[in-house]
Amino acid sequence: MMKDYSDLIRMAIDQLHNSYAPYSRYHVAAALLTKDGRVYCGVNIENAAYTPTICAERTAVFKAVSEGEREFSAIAVVAGDGDFLESCDFHPEALPTYATPCGTCRQVLREFCDPKEFDVVLARSPEDYKVYKLEKLLPVSFGPEFLFK
After folding, report:
1. How do 119-123 and 129-133 pair as beta strands?
2. What is the torsional sign of CA 44, 71, 127, 103?
3. Catalytic member of 46, 57, 93, 145
4. For this structure, is 57 an active site residue?
5. Cα torsion through 52, 28, 143, 118, rounded to 10
6. What domains can be seen in the chain, in order of their start residue?
7. What pLDDT, in 10s, does the model give residues 109-137?
8. CA proximity to 60, closest of 108, 129, 7
9. What are phi and psi of 121, to 5 degrees?
10. DSSP codes joined into one string, 78-90
């Protein structure tokens, strides 16, 4: 049976207005759920030099880790382009697309999450979402257990 991630998705959607995406106009927000029920949110933050840009998923993970968290169970990811979000006043009923974490974000999640257990929730709304195990999105991955045997 699939878990209900509607509250986690709502938290991510509520953060979209904090995204800083003046160059791509592609706003992304994420809500990261710890194993003990805490939630850390993040948004993408772009930079004119491009490479210093950080994705929403990594923002959420780095915030959580910097606060001492190390165990996570799920992340919800939402996104929309600036024109769509402005027309919805940042409170859309349904976002136009599912957004998937980039490869770098998948690897950062892999550093702290069990790929067989961790849920990646791709959402258009609290009612319209897909759930994937990290292992499905990052098969045959490399993690810290290979270095610390």
Report:
1. antiparallel
2. positive
3. 57
4. yes
5. 160
6. 6-146 (3.40.140.10)
7. 999 999 999 999 999 999 999 999 999 99
8. 108
9. -105, 115
10. EEEEHHHHHHTTT
